[in-house]
Amino acid sequence: MRVLVVEDEPRIAADIRRGLEQAGFAVDVVGDGEAAWFQADVETYDAMILDLGLPKLDGLSVLRKLRSANNALPVLILTARDGWRERVDGINAGADDYLSKPFRMEELVARLHAILRRTAGQASPILRAGEVELDPRTKLVTVSGEALSLTPLEYRLFAYLLHRRGDVVSAGELLDHVYESGTDREANAIEALVARLRRKLGPAVIETRRGHGYVVPAGLQ
Question: CA-CA distances (angstroms) from residue 91 to 94, 117, 128, 154, 209?
Answer without folding.
Answer: 5, 18, 31, 34, 39
